[in-house]
Design brief:
single chain; 127 residues; mainly beta
């Protein structure tokens, strides 16, 4: 089962990630922002269960059209942040993110797995 587009049962297959500590099963866990990251204070999707947490995962911003942005965290896995700061709305931008993966209801279709962004870092050639 792919992380993007499918249900919260994905937790069992996140072991495909090379660093298994980047995904933690969590209920209402808020990742701690590293000192080098910028915190995001807008909260969204708070009524949905948290199915996991991503900590310091690298990805690239992708523009899907109609002001819809996703973050590709692998070739096949995309997350859909419910709030994305305007400074990150640059197609192809490399970033490091931390936040909570939120549940998808069975009757829904999303452009990626719903994600509550807690902090980010824009990556440059130096880092």
């Amino acid at each position: 089962m792919m992380l993007a587009f499918l249900s919260c049962e994905k937790e069992t297959e996140i072991a495909d990630y090379p660093d298994k500590t980047t995904f933690e099963s969590a209920q209402n866990h808020i990742p701690r922002c590293p000192p080098h990251c910028i915190p995001v204070t807008d909260s969204c999707l708070t009524s949905r269960s948290t199915t996991g947490t991503l900590n310091q995962v690298q990805g690239n911003i992708l523009y899907k059209g109609n002001d819809m942005w996703t973050i590709a965290i692998s070739k096949t896995d995309h997350i859909y942040p419910c709030f994305l700061p305007s400074t990150l709305k640059v197609n192809g931008l490399a970033i490091e993110i931390s936040g909570n993966i939120k549940e998808i209801y069975p009757y829904e279709r999303w452009p990626g797995t719903p994600f509550q962004l807690h902090c980010y870092k824009i990556l440059t050639a130096e880092n």
